[in-house]
Give the backbone structure.
Amino acid sequence: MNGSRAVITVEALSKSRTGVPVLANICLTVAEGSVTVVVGSSGSGKSTLLRCLNGLETFDFGAVAIAGHRLSAGPHAPQLLEHVRRDVGMLFQQFNLFPHLSVIENVVLAPRVVLRLTAEESRARGLALLDRVGLRAFAEARPATLSGGQQQRVAIARALAIQPRVVLFDEPTSALDPAMSADVLDVIVDLAGSGQTMVVVTHDHDFARKAAAWVVQIDAGKIVRQGLVDEIFQPT
Amino acid sequence: MSRWIRLFLLVLTGLTACDFVGTWPQASAAADLEAVRDRGELVWGADQEGGGPHVFPDPDNPVMLRGFEVDLAAMLAEELGVLARFQQGQWDRLPLLLGRSTDCILNGIELTAQRNRDYRCSRPYYAYALQLLARRDSPLAAFEQLLTTAPRGRWQVGVLTGSAAEIFMRSRHDLAVDVIGYDGTIDSMEQLKTGVLDAAVMDDCIFTFYADRFAELRAVGRPFAGGFYTILTAHNTPQLAVAIDAGLGRMIADGRLQTLYDRWDMAGRQQILMLRDAAEIPASKPQSIWALCRETVPLLLESAAMTLFLSCISFPLAILVGLSVAIGRLHGPVSLRPLLVGYVELVRGTPLMLQLYAIFFLLPQIGLALPAIVAAILGLALNYSAYESEIYRAGLKAVSLGQFEAALSLGMTKWQALRYVLVPQAVRIVMPAVTNDFIAMFKDTSVCSVITVIELTKRYSVLALSTGRIMELALATAILYGAMSWPLSLLSHWFEHRLARSASAR
């Protein structure tokens, strides 16, 4: 790594489900302001690793230090998880926008109820973020009226609204066609350029190159290779 | 167009309902004297529930019936050369059995002008008077005290629904009393004993019979407002009626009735003197439709308002409790979950009527006497909460796990995720089922009549019996129910539509 401060440190993390190992002895460091891309075939455990980082899943051995918090093996205390998640945003393959709320309501919900900002403050913040992802005109629309790419960009704005130190992306473009993926990737690359620390699980090598990322390759629950994007994706 | 079809169906339902409960003289299968003799049985209708000294189950052998009217029916049947067979019915609705399965009604039916118009009333067979009762520790010492309010407001006085006591007490507008109708006289004595009521009024022979069992109660003043018991038959069985009158006459003349009353410690000699001199009570004139409307429509409207009130207060409570139970079962502490499952199973597995009965009649025994209206709301809300909890549990499970994870990933607590993300979506999913339940509860409010709450169905039943206009009132009642439930379903359809629209493309 390039010597800046580590925001995430994964120490010998292992996890199994009904006796079958899912992750084995994962060790990983993510530097502040860097973009880490996790690649691997389907079922290799890369999504599970990501979900262990914000406590959506527990693990059996090892530890995770993330954004100043420490998650140990076994169940996590609810309060600890709330603190972790205020500092760690997460994006999902299926976007998971709240269908009963408008676009702007989706974005301002967490600032209102988690950060307890006033209605004016959170709305201003929400509109600025929608501007940033190019969807300010859709603020009052329902998520169901947007395309998949637009929905994922709203989800990004929603995750950024609590100003997390780290954002985790779980295959953000696999549910999208190439044209829509490109729009979403542009937003993520733009974020990378602004110094947002990100961990992205993806298949998209172009994205890794554009974001000048550190690449971690996982296979069958183990890290098989990691390094700068150019070292990993060398033409053979 | 469909509105007119619905209206038509509504009216049709009303008519059909009349047909089921009504006594159509021309369509009746009532047997006149000849048919009774052919059958070899005189079927007499009565209510054995809390029915002493008239008809009650033998304490030593509850399959057997006892009571002075059981003996009287046997003697009367013997007079006709047949056997007596008992037919159970609810007291205030006994006359509806006439012409269907029953030849006569013999159960402390007081002779009134209205009954004399609607049915064929026999010559009197017993002379009763009304008796005011109070607890021994009550300040009530004379009937006249009811003219001024009690220390804690208006006197709460229990009566048997449809009885002469009820008619008398309700006609006395000068009294500072709230008259509360019960389905059994024992019920009003129980409630008087536990302090829910301040007083009760009933036929004197009933109190005399139960005086030992209710040692906490005492008679206040002398009996008043006397009258006679009569045997009812349908207008289309004149020969049977004549035979019953003749039989009673012979039993009075030859002393058998006196012996019977003496055996039941009911002052036989005194009874016979009064029965011999009993004057005929003229039948009241048939009411015009306008007089009927003037008399019944305000009461029906008032009871319709009660039906609406009960459902509109109880249902939101049921949803609140049901949703809490559902959330508790899915997301609450693990130790709490078996308790919640037990609650749902217990409440779903027992009838609403039993629950209402327990809340209203059993809670006072442990010192928690609730007013009937509060007991009704509580009972309906608890009963429906069990069903609502199952609906909401299904609704919450139908919201994808991804929604929950997305909410948690934004730093929300579990409760914030439920409140802002899961529950609002579950509410939309379950709306059709909940609407359905609301309309079901709307109709289930009629069960509350068992705990003295007079809602629309009960009011219909009382009015139909007191006026004899079963058909017209059934139609009016059906129209009132329709007029209330139709806007309710339009409202819920609109709400459903609005929620569905806001959840999908706009």
